[in-house]
Amino acid sequence: MDLLKEKILNEGRVVSDGVLKVDGFLNHQIDVSLVNEMGKDIYERFKDKGITKILTIEASGIGLACLTAQYFGCKVLYAKKSKTSNMGNSDLYTSRAYSFTHQTENTVLISKKYLEAGERVLIVDDFLAHGEATKALIDLVNQAGAELSGVAIAIEKGFQGGGDKMRADGVDLYSLAIVESMTVEGGVVFRE
Fold first, then answer.
1. What is the average pLDDT value for the chain, to the nearest integer?
2. Is 141:151 a contact under the CB 8 Å cutoff?
């Protein structure tokens, strides 16, 4: 998506060879007009899939997921990274996801009452690098007996291989911008 790529080039910042800061418009402060256009683009790509639920993970994917869901007319479910006191143990689907950004392993969880067998799920998130969070979300979909209809990602770090592996495994993965390489000195290069 050209609009997102322009925003990354103009306002994003490469702080190391693996870290792209887009917190000024995507995952700390949100440029609602931009993210709304991203949601429209995702809708156009998946509108014929009969999506009944959008699944993301807290917290950075929630904004994009919500603005995308308005076009599908469906609800957003987000996996939590910690259990709250009002969640029972037996009423949860859980999976593990390693975060390379935070260097921690998280147990992600959703309530069984919010994802049911037969639902057609679109996973939406802000970043995909190695694919650990997305794999955990796919695992939750499978545990529920729901159908994975696709995965939509704002920014894929193509050089880290997670997206390529998922596509090879048959996942219908759509990324609005794929970063082929990035360096502090050279900036961002997108995959064509």
1. 94
2. no
Count of domains for the chain: 1
Backbone angles phi, psi at 53, to 5 degrees: -155, 140
188-191 long-range contacts, CB within 8 A, separation 24+ = 188/8, 188/9, 188/12, 188/14, 188/20, 190/5, 191/158
**How far apart, in whole angstroms, are the C-alpha atoms of residue 65 and residue 187?**
28
Mean pLDDT of 58-63: 91
Range of the domain at 127: 2-190
83 against 10, higher pLDDT: 10
Helix or strand (DSSP H, E) at 10: helix 2-11
Residues 6+ apart with CB under 8 A from 171: 138, 148, 150, 151
As a whole number of angstroms, the distance between CA 99 and CA 1 comes to 26
Interval 143-154: pLDDT, tens: 999 999 999 999
Pairing label, strands 173-183, 187-190: antiparallel
Helix or strand holding residue 109 (H, E)? strand 104-111
pTM, to two decimals: 0.94
Backbone torsion region of residue 184, taken as left when φ is above 0, otherwise alpha when ψ lies between -120 and 50, otherwise beta: alpha
CATH number (domain holding residue 179)? 3.40.50.2020
Residue appearing with tokens 């009944």 = 52
